[in-house]
Amino acid sequence: MNPVRKMKIIVAMDVDAGIGKNGNLPWALKKDMKFFADTTKHVMDSTKRNAIVMGRKCWESIPEKRKPLPGRLNVVLSRSQPEKIEDNLIFVNDFDKMMNLLSSEPYKSQIETIWNIGGAEIYQMALDKELVNEMYVTHIYKKYDTDVSLSTIDFSKYERLKLQDDENTSNVVEENGVRFEFCRWKV
Ligand SMILES: NC(=O)c1ccc[n+]([C@@H]2O[C@H](COP(=O)([O-])OP(=O)(O)OC[C@H]3O[C@@H](n4cnc5c(N)ncnc54)[C@H](OP(=O)(O)O)[C@@H]3O)[C@@H](O)[C@H]2O)c1
User: pLDDT of 24-57, one tens digit each?
Assistant: First the structure.
């Protein structure tokens, strides 16, 4: 049995850790979408790609014409949908089965980073199983109307890492009057 790999979480949250509303994101922030795409696509070894693991509800929130998200192996967790394995898309009905699959060949060699892209159920499961080694969090300095949150994370327990090598780089950005900050936390 191969050792189970660790994963990285990428999430955007408001001041109260709200992450979703009516099955979608509560905000539309292009700069955060670009950060998400760039970060989850980035590989050190150009012969590899990354996996993005998500819950069925997160998958359904992605517009049809953009699915599967390009340049990454899309892995969807669902107990209600049939399992399938295609080149760019996997549906699997159990979290541990999914982690064992991605920790075994051929994925073990082909996949550089396993990104957990949510939603709340899938983030929480990975945290509870202690399978997360880093969290990339967009902290949005605004309160939104949300119905899904990830308020269980106590950031005071984690070390904040530099996002980039340049220590002086500010990770705070603004879009349409909304301030948000890209942060990286070591778990
Ligand atoms: N702000 C952000 O960064 C961010 C990121 C992602 C998502 N979101 C938002 O979060 C919301 C969705 O989050 P959510 O927590 O409601 O749903 P979710 O985590 O996206 O999906 C939940 C679904 O995943 C499947 N699932 C969960 N645990 C499983 C397991 N152990 N094995 C197999 N399948 C499993 C089940 O699908 P079945 O019912 O098919 O069995 C379950 O209904 C949306 O509003 C979305 O826009 C926000």
Answer: 999 999 999 999 999 999 999 999 999 999 999 9
**Burial class for 28, CB neighbours closer than 10 Å (0-12, 13-18, 19+):** exposed
- Report pLDDT for 162: 85
Q: What is the arithmetic mean of pLDDT over 84-105?
A: 97
Structural contact between residues 145 and 135, judged by C-beta atoms closer than 8 angstroms = no
Strand duo 18-20 + 132-140: pairing: unpaired
pLDDT at 133 exceeding the cut of 90: yes
Please choose from 10, 19, 153 the residue to mutate so as to test ligand 1's pocket, defined by most ligand atoms within 8 A of CB: 19
The tokens 């996002």 sit on which residue? 163
| Residues contacting ligand 1 via CB (< 6 Å) | 11-12, 19-20, 23-25, 54-58, 61, 77-81, 93-95, 117-122, 125, 148
First CA to last CA distance, the chain? 25
Three-state SS at 58: helix
Give me the CATH topology for the region 7-186: Dihydrofolate Reductase, subunit A (3.40.430)
For residue 3, name the pLDDT band (cuts at 50, 70, 90).
confident
- State the distance from the centre of ligand 1 to the C-alpha of 24, rounded, in angstroms: 11
